[in-house]
Every structure is written in C-alpha cells, then in structure tokens.
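Hi V.,

Quick status before I head out on leave. The structure for the redesign project is tokenized and pasted below; the design run finished overnight.
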C-alpha cells in the first residue's frame, strides 16, 4: 500500500463549489489575480485564480493503484478492491454491498471467477489462493 496514490477528489472552487480547472494563462488572463501570486487552478464561474491547497479536500477520500496491469482501490478502512488484474482465482461471493464481486479472503474451487493479486504481492511469494493467468487461463505456480 506504500505505492498507492492518495485521492483527494476532483478540484473544486471553495467559493461556488463548481469544478476548478487547470490554470492556463491565455485562457484565464484577467481573472482576480490579487489573491494569489501562484495559481495552479482557476474557477471559470467566479473568475478567480485558485491555489491547489484551496481546491482539494483536507480529508483523504481514498487510495488507488494502477501499474503492471493492475487497477486497485481501497474500500472501507482495510479492504482493497482488485478492479483489474492479469490474474484471477475463484472465490466466494462478497457481501451484498458489492454484488457480483468475489471475496479473496474466501477462495473456493467452485466459486466465481475473481480478479486477484499475483503470487509476487505476498511476502512468501505465494498467494493464499490458486492464481490463474487471464491471458492463458492456466494456473500460475509460485516461484
């Protein structure tokens, strides 16, 4: 989780609540420039320059990870969703709050096909479930 990106949401204007856009000098020339010496964003509704510290929430909304064919995001405080992966396994259905998803804490040979993490994500380089290649459908043995 050390390599997950922090998500503070989309930039928005603290005054009107509309989306803030990346500052472009030619496009936003003439906006209220007295407030900021350095503008990263602009509110096209308020016609104001905005600093990045103003346009994002102070509270972290979540985490995400995209690399090596994986797309992961956090869920609740301690769970991670595997949205995309080069690997899958078979697992029990997850709780009703995530219909159709598989629960990697409960692998089952006759469960639903579920994206999973490969063996190299685990300390002993062995996943706690069988790992199959999405590309070939064949089981991947740990190193």
């Amino acid at each position: 989780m050390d390599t997950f990106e922090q998500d503070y949401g989309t930039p928005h204007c603290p005054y009107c609540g509309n989306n803030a856009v990346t500052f472009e000098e030619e496009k936003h020339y003439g906006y209220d420039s007295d407030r900021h010496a350095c503008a990263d964003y602009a509110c096209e509704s308020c016609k104001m320059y905005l600093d990045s510290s103003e346009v994002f929430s102070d509270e972290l909304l979540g985490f995400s990870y995209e690399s090596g064919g994986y797309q992961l995001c956090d869920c609740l405080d301690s769970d991670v969703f595997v949205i995309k992966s080069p690997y899958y396994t078979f697992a029990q259905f997850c709780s009703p709050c995530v219909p159709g998803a598989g629960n990697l804490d409960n692998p089952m040979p006759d469960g639903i096909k579920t994206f999973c993490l490969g063996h190299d994500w685990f300390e002993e380089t062995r996943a706690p479930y069988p790992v199959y290649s999405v590309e070939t459908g064949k089981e991947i043995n740990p190193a």
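Above is the designed sequence. The two ends are 22 Å apart (CA to CA).

G. will cover questions while I'm gone.

Best,
W.
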